[in-house]
What we know:
TIM Barrel; 43% helix; Bact_Lucif_Oxidored; CmoO-like
Amino acid sequence: MTTFSILDLVRVRENGTPRLALDHARDLAAHAEDWGYERFWVAEHHNMQGVASAATSVVIGHIAAGTKHIRVGAGGIMLPNHAPMVIAEQFGTLAHLFPGRIDLGLGRAPGTDQTTAYALRRSFNNADNFPQDVLELQAYLSPGVEGQRIHAVPATGTEVPLWILGSSTFGAQLAAQLGLPFGFASHFAPDMLMQALDIYRSRFKPSAQLAKPHAMVGVNVIAAETDEEATFLATTQQMSFTNIFRGARGLSQPPIADIETYWSPMEKAQAMRMLQLSIIGSTETVRQGLNWLIRETGADELMIVSDVYDHDLRLRSFRLIAEAMGVLPAVAAAAD
């Protein structure tokens, strides 16, 4: 049975603040665990004024403290930006604070531009060391062995579950080789999705963490009362992607009535290629779209992005998604 999870962008919106974005993420997570979602992840981004999750482990602590049982984690930590020991220390600490609830998804991309990477005191060449860094991090999280001289205190023995994340076949191959769950970033880079899933499943080797492949697929979903309203709300994300191409990554903007007045034909083509795996519409439209995606990919889990400007409407979107897929518990449905 496919499970459903949330990737939150912790978007700072116009006339908002980073604190408001962080509190909205925590509030969404609290609702999500009542609505049947499996996990709630945030991602590492740097030098982006519209995203408040740069200090990812701190944000995870904030969210986990406001929830009770939903898994909380990174989707992901961009490991080339960090020493593996430091990440082990951070997530080992989280594992002690919130036992059995912390996930650690790992990405190979720097998640930023070259100038910002230098400001992080890291190099783009660090991506070449990604497989070795994953193994080093895994060792720090494993039980200690006799003669071990370096320990990532208090990470030793916490065995925080690792995930490999990616938007190409590289991550699929590594996840298969290491026997780790794999998440594909098809919510912004869908072109190689099916190829990556085939490679992951066909080459998977069981490990101590995972006996059989577990494939997570990222998807943009915006649910509303009608298809027309959902299409209107989706313009917030469409403008965000357009702004990326313009080199003007800013705050989240409210939706607009006519997106054609905002982007050029070339910008539209670029944005829609990246956003082609998007399901936008009423509850029934969302149900049909997600069922189709599950049939096509065989996904064990869907990681859902619902980039809606207004917080209350974003809550409604995730509630309608849960209703559409039958994961919303009856008690929660009655309460809402």
